Amino acid sequence: MRYKKLLFAVSAVVLTLNNAQAASAVDLSSYSVSATYNLDILNGISGGISGLEASAVTYAADRNSLFFLGDEGTGVIETSLTGQTLGYMDFNWLGTGSTKNDSEGLTYIGNGKLVVSEERLQDAYQFDYVNQGTATLANNFVSMSDTEVKNHGIEGISYDSRDGSFVTVKQDSPEAVNIGTLTFSAATGGLPSDLPKHGTSPNGGGLSTMVAAFDPTSLGLSTLSDVQTLGILGSDDLLILSLGSRKLVTADRSGNLLSTFDLSMVLPNNGIEGVTIDANGTIYLVAEQLQDEFALGGDMSQLIVLTSNISAVPIPPAVLLFTPALLGFMGLRRKAKNN
Question: Are 90 and 103 in contact (CB under 8 A)?
Fold first, then answer.
Protein backbone atom coordinates (compact mmCIF):
# COMPACT_ATOMS: atom_id res chain seq x y z
CA MET A 1 0.00 0.00 0.00
CA ARG A 2 2.89 2.35 0.86
CA TYR A 3 4.36 1.74 -2.59
CA LYS A 4 1.05 2.56 -4.25
CA LYS A 5 0.70 5.78 -2.28
CA LEU A 6 4.23 6.88 -3.06
CA LEU A 7 3.85 5.91 -6.70
CA PHE A 8 0.69 8.03 -6.82
CA ALA A 9 2.61 10.96 -5.26
CA VAL A 10 5.42 10.61 -7.78
CA SER A 11 2.89 10.42 -10.62
CA ALA A 12 1.20 13.58 -9.34
CA VAL A 13 4.52 15.45 -9.30
CA VAL A 14 5.32 14.22 -12.81
CA LEU A 15 1.93 15.52 -13.92
CA THR A 16 2.73 18.86 -12.26
CA LEU A 17 6.03 18.95 -14.15
CA ASN A 18 4.29 18.22 -17.43
CA ASN A 19 1.74 20.95 -16.74
CA ALA A 20 4.55 23.37 -15.88
CA GLN A 21 6.22 22.59 -19.18
CA ALA A 22 2.92 23.10 -21.02
CA ALA A 23 2.47 26.46 -19.28
CA SER A 24 5.97 27.64 -20.17
CA ALA A 25 4.90 29.00 -23.58
CA VAL A 26 4.92 32.80 -23.65
CA ASP A 27 1.64 34.51 -22.69
CA LEU A 28 1.88 37.96 -24.22
CA SER A 29 -0.95 39.29 -22.04
CA SER A 30 1.52 39.33 -19.13
CA TYR A 31 4.10 41.50 -20.97
CA SER A 32 4.77 45.22 -20.94
CA VAL A 33 7.47 47.54 -22.29
CA SER A 34 10.22 47.83 -19.68
CA ALA A 35 12.86 49.82 -21.60
CA THR A 36 13.91 51.31 -24.93
CA TYR A 37 17.48 52.01 -26.05
CA ASN A 38 19.17 53.80 -28.95
CA LEU A 39 21.16 51.55 -31.30
CA ASP A 40 24.43 52.75 -32.80
CA ILE A 41 24.49 53.89 -36.42
CA LEU A 42 28.23 53.22 -36.95
CA ASN A 43 28.20 55.14 -40.24
CA GLY A 44 31.67 55.43 -41.73
CA ILE A 45 33.09 52.65 -39.57
CA SER A 46 35.00 49.98 -41.52
CA GLY A 47 33.08 49.43 -44.78
CA GLY A 48 30.27 51.75 -43.72
CA ILE A 49 28.35 49.51 -41.27
CA SER A 50 24.95 51.06 -40.65
CA GLY A 51 22.57 50.36 -37.80
CA LEU A 52 19.87 52.43 -39.50
CA GLU A 53 16.54 50.88 -40.54
CA ALA A 54 16.99 47.99 -38.09
CA SER A 55 15.15 45.04 -39.60
CA ALA A 56 16.15 41.95 -37.60
CA VAL A 57 17.52 40.94 -34.20
CA THR A 58 18.60 37.62 -32.68
CA TYR A 59 19.68 36.47 -29.21
CA ALA A 60 22.98 34.59 -28.81
CA ALA A 61 22.55 32.36 -25.76
CA ASP A 62 26.20 31.32 -25.46
CA ARG A 63 27.30 34.98 -25.59
CA ASN A 64 24.31 36.50 -23.74
CA SER A 65 24.20 39.23 -26.36
CA LEU A 66 22.13 40.42 -29.30
CA PHE A 67 22.95 40.77 -32.99
CA PHE A 68 20.99 43.10 -35.24
CA LEU A 69 21.20 44.41 -38.79
CA GLY A 70 19.67 47.05 -41.04
CA ASP A 71 17.81 46.27 -44.25
CA GLU A 72 20.52 47.78 -46.47
CA GLY A 73 22.68 44.71 -45.94
CA THR A 74 25.90 46.46 -44.94
CA GLY A 75 26.69 44.17 -42.01
CA VAL A 76 25.76 42.93 -38.55
CA ILE A 77 26.24 44.61 -35.15
CA GLU A 78 26.60 42.85 -31.77
CA THR A 79 25.18 44.61 -28.72
CA SER A 80 24.58 43.99 -25.05
CA LEU A 81 21.03 43.30 -23.87
CA THR A 82 20.71 47.02 -23.23
CA GLY A 83 21.89 48.12 -26.67
CA GLN A 84 25.56 48.95 -26.07
CA THR A 85 27.69 48.12 -29.12
CA LEU A 86 30.12 45.22 -28.60
CA GLY A 87 31.35 44.75 -32.17
CA TYR A 88 30.41 44.59 -35.85
CA MET A 89 31.09 42.67 -39.07
CA ASP A 90 30.80 43.73 -42.71
CA PHE A 91 28.99 41.79 -45.46
CA ASN A 92 30.51 41.09 -48.88
CA TRP A 93 27.68 40.31 -51.34
CA LEU A 94 29.93 39.61 -54.35
CA GLY A 95 28.78 36.47 -56.17
CA THR A 96 25.38 36.24 -54.44
CA GLY A 97 23.45 37.72 -57.39
CA SER A 98 21.73 40.19 -55.05
CA THR A 99 21.29 43.69 -56.46
CA LYS A 100 19.42 45.11 -53.46
CA ASN A 101 21.24 43.36 -50.57
CA ASP A 102 17.85 43.33 -48.83
CA SER A 103 18.75 41.68 -45.52
CA GLU A 104 15.56 41.25 -43.49
CA GLY A 105 16.07 38.10 -41.41
CA LEU A 106 18.76 37.09 -38.90
CA THR A 107 19.16 34.13 -36.54
CA TYR A 108 21.92 32.78 -34.31
CA ILE A 109 22.70 29.06 -34.46
CA GLY A 110 25.44 28.81 -31.82
CA ASN A 111 29.24 28.84 -31.57
CA GLY A 112 29.50 32.25 -33.21
CA LYS A 113 27.53 31.23 -36.31
CA LEU A 114 24.72 33.34 -37.74
CA VAL A 115 22.35 33.05 -40.69
CA VAL A 116 21.10 36.10 -42.58
CA SER A 117 18.32 35.96 -45.18
CA GLU A 118 17.87 38.09 -48.31
CA GLU A 119 14.25 39.03 -48.89
CA ARG A 120 14.01 39.27 -52.70
CA LEU A 121 16.10 36.21 -53.62
CA GLN A 122 14.73 34.19 -50.67
CA ASP A 123 18.25 32.99 -49.99
CA ALA A 124 19.97 32.39 -46.64
CA TYR A 125 23.68 32.76 -45.87
CA GLN A 126 25.57 31.20 -42.96
CA PHE A 127 28.74 32.82 -41.62
CA ASP A 128 31.06 32.83 -38.61
CA TYR A 129 31.03 36.08 -36.71
CA VAL A 130 34.44 37.76 -36.48
CA ASN A 131 34.50 41.17 -34.84
CA GLN A 132 35.59 43.80 -37.40
CA GLY A 133 35.87 41.11 -40.07
CA THR A 134 34.05 40.59 -43.38
CA ALA A 135 31.61 37.78 -44.19
CA THR A 136 31.73 36.65 -47.84
CA LEU A 137 28.13 35.49 -48.07
CA ALA A 138 28.38 33.51 -51.34
CA ASN A 139 30.74 31.06 -49.60
CA ASN A 140 27.94 29.40 -47.64
CA PHE A 141 24.38 29.81 -48.86
CA VAL A 142 21.13 28.09 -49.77
CA SER A 143 18.23 29.19 -51.95
CA MET A 144 14.75 28.55 -50.54
CA SER A 145 12.82 29.52 -53.67
CA ASP A 146 13.38 30.17 -57.38
CA THR A 147 10.47 32.63 -57.48
CA GLU A 148 11.19 36.34 -57.99
CA VAL A 149 9.16 38.09 -55.28
CA LYS A 150 10.67 41.61 -55.31
CA ASN A 151 9.76 43.29 -52.00
CA HIS A 152 7.33 40.61 -50.78
CA GLY A 153 9.75 37.87 -49.75
CA ILE A 154 11.39 36.50 -46.61
CA GLU A 155 11.13 38.94 -43.73
CA GLY A 156 12.24 36.68 -40.89
CA ILE A 157 14.16 33.50 -40.13
CA SER A 158 14.61 31.63 -36.84
CA TYR A 159 16.62 28.57 -35.81
CA ASP A 160 15.39 25.90 -33.39
CA SER A 161 18.44 24.40 -31.69
CA ARG A 162 16.42 21.42 -30.44
CA ASP A 163 16.28 19.76 -33.87
CA GLY A 164 18.30 22.03 -36.18
CA SER A 165 15.25 23.20 -38.12
CA PHE A 166 14.48 26.71 -39.38
CA VAL A 167 11.23 28.67 -39.57
CA THR A 168 10.79 31.55 -42.03
CA VAL A 169 8.02 34.04 -42.70
CA LYS A 170 7.21 35.61 -46.07
CA GLN A 171 5.82 39.14 -45.88
CA ASP A 172 2.76 38.96 -48.16
CA SER A 173 1.43 38.31 -51.69
CA PRO A 174 0.87 35.72 -50.23
CA GLU A 175 1.92 35.45 -46.59
CA ALA A 176 3.71 32.22 -45.69
CA VAL A 177 5.14 30.44 -42.65
CA ASN A 178 7.60 27.73 -43.72
CA ILE A 179 9.55 25.16 -41.73
CA GLY A 180 12.31 22.72 -42.63
CA THR A 181 16.05 22.20 -42.75
CA LEU A 182 18.74 24.14 -44.60
CA THR A 183 22.09 22.77 -45.77
CA PHE A 184 24.63 25.43 -46.68
CA SER A 185 27.45 25.23 -49.24
CA ALA A 186 29.40 27.50 -51.56
CA ALA A 187 28.26 28.93 -54.89
CA THR A 188 29.67 27.15 -57.93
CA GLY A 189 29.87 28.16 -61.60
CA GLY A 190 28.95 31.81 -61.12
CA LEU A 191 25.58 33.35 -61.95
CA PRO A 192 23.05 32.28 -64.61
CA SER A 193 23.38 34.27 -67.82
CA ASP A 194 19.76 35.51 -67.73
CA LEU A 195 20.28 37.71 -64.66
CA PRO A 196 16.91 39.46 -64.08
CA LYS A 197 16.50 43.01 -62.90
CA HIS A 198 16.26 42.15 -59.22
CA GLY A 199 19.02 39.55 -59.22
CA THR A 200 19.02 35.78 -59.05
CA SER A 201 20.60 33.10 -56.90
CA PRO A 202 23.97 31.84 -58.16
CA ASN A 203 24.59 28.29 -59.30
CA GLY A 204 25.40 25.83 -56.54
CA GLY A 205 24.67 26.39 -52.88
CA GLY A 206 23.03 24.04 -50.44
CA LEU A 207 19.68 22.28 -50.21
CA SER A 208 16.39 23.42 -48.64
CA THR A 209 13.46 21.32 -47.41
CA MET A 210 11.27 24.28 -46.41
CA VAL A 211 7.53 23.55 -46.60
CA ALA A 212 4.40 25.37 -45.43
CA ALA A 213 3.76 24.91 -41.70
CA PHE A 214 0.19 26.26 -41.81
CA ASP A 215 -2.01 28.84 -43.52
CA PRO A 216 -1.07 32.14 -41.80
CA THR A 217 -4.32 33.86 -42.77
CA SER A 218 -5.73 32.19 -39.63
CA LEU A 219 -3.69 34.69 -37.58
CA GLY A 220 -5.51 37.70 -39.06
CA LEU A 221 -2.30 39.69 -39.67
CA SER A 222 -1.95 42.00 -42.66
CA THR A 223 1.79 41.26 -43.09
CA LEU A 224 4.40 38.99 -41.52
CA SER A 225 7.58 40.80 -40.46
CA ASP A 226 9.59 38.36 -38.32
CA VAL A 227 9.42 35.03 -36.51
CA GLN A 228 11.07 33.55 -33.44
CA THR A 229 10.95 29.92 -32.37
CA LEU A 230 10.41 29.36 -28.64
CA GLY A 231 12.58 26.25 -28.44
CA ILE A 232 14.87 28.10 -26.02
CA LEU A 233 11.97 27.88 -23.55
CA GLY A 234 11.21 24.25 -24.37
CA SER A 235 8.12 25.18 -26.38
CA ASP A 236 7.04 24.42 -29.96
CA ASP A 237 5.17 27.73 -30.19
CA LEU A 238 6.20 30.65 -32.38
CA LEU A 239 6.46 34.40 -31.83
CA ILE A 240 5.33 36.21 -34.98
CA LEU A 241 5.63 39.95 -35.58
CA SER A 242 3.45 41.98 -37.94
CA LEU A 243 4.51 45.50 -38.90
CA GLY A 244 1.34 46.02 -40.94
CA SER A 245 -0.96 45.12 -38.05
CA ARG A 246 1.36 46.53 -35.33
CA LYS A 247 0.99 43.29 -33.37
CA LEU A 248 3.13 40.59 -31.81
CA VAL A 249 1.44 37.20 -31.48
CA THR A 250 2.16 33.69 -30.30
CA ALA A 251 0.86 30.74 -32.29
CA ASP A 252 1.26 27.00 -32.24
CA ARG A 253 2.60 25.15 -35.26
CA SER A 254 -0.89 24.43 -36.51
CA GLY A 255 -1.61 28.14 -36.84
CA ASN A 256 -3.77 28.54 -33.74
CA LEU A 257 -3.52 32.04 -32.26
CA LEU A 258 -2.54 31.81 -28.57
CA SER A 259 -1.89 35.36 -27.35
CA THR A 260 -1.47 38.91 -28.67
CA PHE A 261 0.47 42.04 -27.77
CA ASP A 262 -0.70 45.35 -29.24
CA LEU A 263 2.21 47.44 -30.55
CA SER A 264 0.12 50.32 -31.88
CA MET A 265 1.22 52.66 -29.06
CA VAL A 266 4.83 51.42 -28.82
CA LEU A 267 6.99 53.94 -30.71
CA PRO A 268 3.99 54.46 -33.03
CA ASN A 269 6.01 56.42 -35.63
CA ASN A 270 8.79 53.81 -35.92
CA GLY A 271 8.58 50.67 -38.04
CA ILE A 272 9.06 47.66 -35.72
CA GLU A 273 10.50 44.85 -37.86
CA GLY A 274 12.50 42.38 -35.74
CA VAL A 275 11.90 40.16 -32.69
CA THR A 276 13.84 37.70 -30.56
CA ILE A 277 13.64 36.20 -27.05
CA ASP A 278 16.18 35.12 -24.43
CA ALA A 279 16.27 32.16 -22.06
CA ASN A 280 14.48 34.16 -19.35
CA GLY A 281 11.54 34.91 -21.63
CA THR A 282 12.53 38.57 -22.13
CA ILE A 283 11.49 39.75 -25.60
CA TYR A 284 13.58 42.16 -27.69
CA LEU A 285 12.23 44.13 -30.65
CA VAL A 286 14.10 46.40 -33.06
CA ALA A 287 12.54 49.39 -34.77
CA GLU A 288 13.73 51.67 -37.56
CA GLN A 289 14.69 55.24 -36.75
CA LEU A 290 12.12 57.99 -37.27
CA GLN A 291 11.77 58.78 -40.97
CA ASP A 292 8.66 60.94 -41.08
CA GLU A 293 7.88 64.59 -40.37
CA PHE A 294 8.83 64.05 -36.73
CA ALA A 295 12.43 63.09 -37.60
CA LEU A 296 15.02 65.60 -36.43
CA GLY A 297 18.08 64.14 -38.13
CA GLY A 298 20.54 61.89 -36.35
CA ASP A 299 17.72 59.65 -35.14
CA MET A 300 18.75 56.10 -34.28
CA SER A 301 17.09 52.71 -34.58
CA GLN A 302 15.59 51.48 -31.32
CA LEU A 303 15.83 48.39 -29.13
CA ILE A 304 12.56 47.73 -27.29
CA VAL A 305 12.50 45.37 -24.30
CA LEU A 306 9.34 43.56 -23.20
CA THR A 307 9.27 41.74 -19.86
CA SER A 308 6.64 39.56 -18.23
CA ASN A 309 5.20 39.90 -14.73
CA ILE A 310 5.16 36.11 -14.43
CA SER A 311 7.90 33.53 -14.83
CA ALA A 312 8.16 32.34 -18.43
CA VAL A 313 9.70 28.99 -17.45
CA PRO A 314 8.18 27.63 -14.21
CA ILE A 315 9.92 24.24 -14.53
CA PRO A 316 12.70 24.25 -11.86
CA PRO A 317 10.34 24.18 -8.80
CA ALA A 318 8.61 21.09 -10.19
CA VAL A 319 11.97 19.45 -10.76
CA LEU A 320 12.91 20.13 -7.14
CA LEU A 321 9.65 18.54 -5.97
CA PHE A 322 10.06 15.55 -8.26
CA THR A 323 13.63 14.67 -7.26
CA PRO A 324 13.15 13.84 -3.53
CA ALA A 325 9.94 11.93 -4.27
CA LEU A 326 11.72 9.81 -6.85
CA LEU A 327 14.70 9.21 -4.56
CA GLY A 328 12.36 8.17 -1.75
CA PHE A 329 10.57 5.72 -4.02
CA MET A 330 13.87 4.19 -5.16
CA GLY A 331 15.05 3.90 -1.53
CA LEU A 332 11.92 1.98 -0.52
CA ARG A 333 12.38 -0.38 -3.45
CA ARG A 334 15.97 -1.13 -2.40
CA LYS A 335 14.85 -1.74 1.23
CA ALA A 336 12.13 -4.14 0.10
CA LYS A 337 14.61 -6.11 -2.00
CA ASN A 338 17.07 -6.39 0.91
CA ASN A 339 14.33 -7.79 3.12
Answer: no
